[in-house]
Specification:
This protein is of the alpha/beta class. The protein contains 11 helices and 19 strands. It has 3 domains: 3-40 and 214-279 and 388-440, FAD/NAD(P)-binding domain (3-Layer(bba) Sandwich), CATH 3.50.50.60; 88-202, protoporphyrinogen ix oxidase, domain 3; 283-384, Polyamine Oxidase, Chain A, domain 2 (Alpha-Beta Complex), CATH 3.90.660.20. Helix 1 (10-21) packs parallel to helix 11, helix 3 (110-129) runs antiparallel to helix 5 and helix 7 (272-279) crosses helix 10. The protein starts with a strand and ends with a helix. The protein binds flavin-adenine dinucleotide. It comes from Engelhardtia mirabilis.
Length: 441
């Protein structure tokens, strides 16, 4: 079974490694990767001793202990990882507010605290007493779930920064497990100053001691080196009877982790319906700005959220040098700011960078004289946008791939809001399935 795996991000490489673990000869597997480096969205970059993750600060955590251990083992095992407590906050005006926001109401200025609590209780009463159904659009869902105070003070402005479109154009189908969901008692306690915790499954996380998050995909790549064709763009996939031709070379099977959006230009003979469905799946890009600082220490923070426009265009700032001491030279620190854009070029550039720095200075997060240099990276496919009609378009796209036997995998390969651990779990499932088929065959 000569198999082409399109894309050498974590999904493609994890699949290859799992197949080898299940007895597939490594020489059967051929990975095509457009970039000169494997790793995809898990890549990191080091400039003058400062390391940052190019597609937003990445942490390793998982509900699946075996998958997480497997990922650690790719990069040298437990000893190769820092273990960190997640300490995330929202910068609200000049205050630090505990995250998730509804667990931090007591940290707010008193009027905002009252607005949020009153709105939360009102919304909770509406939901429970009247048993109202969850609205399908995200803007209404926020108010239904959290009330007007939390919507106006945090959720609406923060999400407007990320999604870059009116929130009523987005559906609420992605929120389960993604948007924290505190019980009413916790919110009442939080508002009067009793500490409560939300989102506890992410209370601890791991990060490679050296090389940024990319150390994990570097480890995967190490074991597959001879099979990964770097700087090799997949330009054509053609079904030829029971087999496939990829860039003119014959294969028995094809697994694609490429964004569905690019497949209409690659898969020959795709009918107009699925092609249109794939092309119109919406996504946001992310631009990450490293700020290398001449500052010896940071507060003990993992990352923070910036909801206000005056804080600049970045929605999230990662305390990159707190993840691993080697992420900055000795005695120095770094910040990494994420700015989303609507998937169209140009990406945020020098002007956005200036506004980001001004916003951080305004928010009291750094001083101008501390800045040594900046670096900027953009990733085109970063966030899936769940606009109306998304599910139908995705179903049409995947049904077509199924009909031609091209197997989709990965965050944009299947348009699933996966973190890297979930990519690994999906790759493991697929490897089990393919290994089972090979045994039957
Ligand atoms: C802002 C942000 C923060 C995140 N934070 C975390 C986190 O904290 N923890 C975590 O675990 N995960 C996190 N993730 C998710 C994680 O990055 C992804 O789930 C994972 O990297 C996706 O891997 P993949 O292999 O499916 O896709 P990708 O990494 O996108 O891989 C696809 C590969 O295909 C290649 N390719 C595309 N077109 C072609 C072509 N025509 N020919 C050949 N190759 C091609 C690309 O170059 C790429 O290498 C985050 C993601 C983002 C955007």
């Amino acid at each position: 079974m000569k198999t082409a795996i399109l894309g050498a991000g974590v999904s493609g490489m994890a699949l290859a490694r799992f197949l080898v673990e299940r007895g597939r000869p490594i020489t059967d597997l051929h990975l095509f990767e457009a970039a000169p480096v494997a790793g995809g969205l898990c890549q990191s970059k080091t400039v003058d001793g400062y390391t940052y993750d190019v597609a937003g600060g990445h942490i390793l955590f998982s509900k699946d202990a075996a998958a997480m251990q497997w990922m650690k083992d790719q990069a040298g095992g437990d000893d190769a990882f820092e273990k960190r407590d997640r300490n995330t906050k929202i910068r609200f005006e000049d205050k630090w507010v505990h995250y998730p926001f509804e667990n931090g109401l007591g940290d707010l200025p008193i009027q905002a605290n009252y607005d949020c609590l009153e709105g939360y209780v009102r919304a909770w009463h509406e939901r429970t007493a009247r048993d109202t159904a969850a609205p399908a659009d995200f803007a209404s869902w926020i108010r239904w779930r959290f009330g007007d105070g939390i919507a106006d003070h945090f959720m609406a402005p923060y999400n407007a920064k990320i999604w870059k479109r009116p929130l009523d154009q987005i559906t609420s189908e992605w929120v389960a497990g993604r948007v924290p969901d505190a019980p009413v008692a916790d919110v009442l306690k939080a508002a009067i100053g009793m500490r409560t915790e939300g989102y506890t499954h992410q209370a601890l996380f791991y990060y490679p001691k050296n090389g940024g998050f990319q150390a994990i995909t570097d480890g995967l790549y190490e074991g597959l080196k001879a099979q990964v064709r770097l700087s090799t763009v997949v330009e054509s996939v053609r079904q030829v009877g029971e087999r496939y031709s990829v860039n003119g070379e014959d294969f028995d099977a094809v697994v694609s982790t490429l964004p569905l959006n690019v497949l209409p230009d690659i898969v020959e003979g795709m009918p107009a319906g699925p092609a249109e469905a794939m092309r119109t799946l919406e996504f946001n890009s992310v631009t990450c700005i490293l700020l290398a600082l001449d500052r010896a220490e940071h507060p003990n923070l993992s990352w923070i959220y910036l909801p206000h426009d005056v804080q600049g265009p970045a929605n999230r700032v990662t305390y990159m040098s707190n993840y691993a001491t080697t992420n900055a030279p000795a005695g120095k620190t770094s910040l990494m700011c994420e700015i989303t854009s609507d998937g169209k070029l140009p990406y945020p550039g020098a002007e956005a960078e200036k506004q980001t720095i001004a916003g951080l200075i305004h928010a009291g997060l750094m001083r101008e004289e501390e800045l040594l240099f900046t670096d900027r990276s953009s990733s085109k496919y970063a966030y899936i946008v769940y606009d109306h009609g998304f599910s139908e378009r995705k179903r049409t796209a995947l049904e077509y791939l199924d009909s031609v036997g091209v197997v989709p995998l990965g965050r944009f390969g299947k348009y699933e809001y996966h973190n890297s651990d979930q990519c690994v779990i999906e790759a493991r499932k697929l490897a089990d399935q393919l290994a089972g088929q090979a045994v039957k065959g």
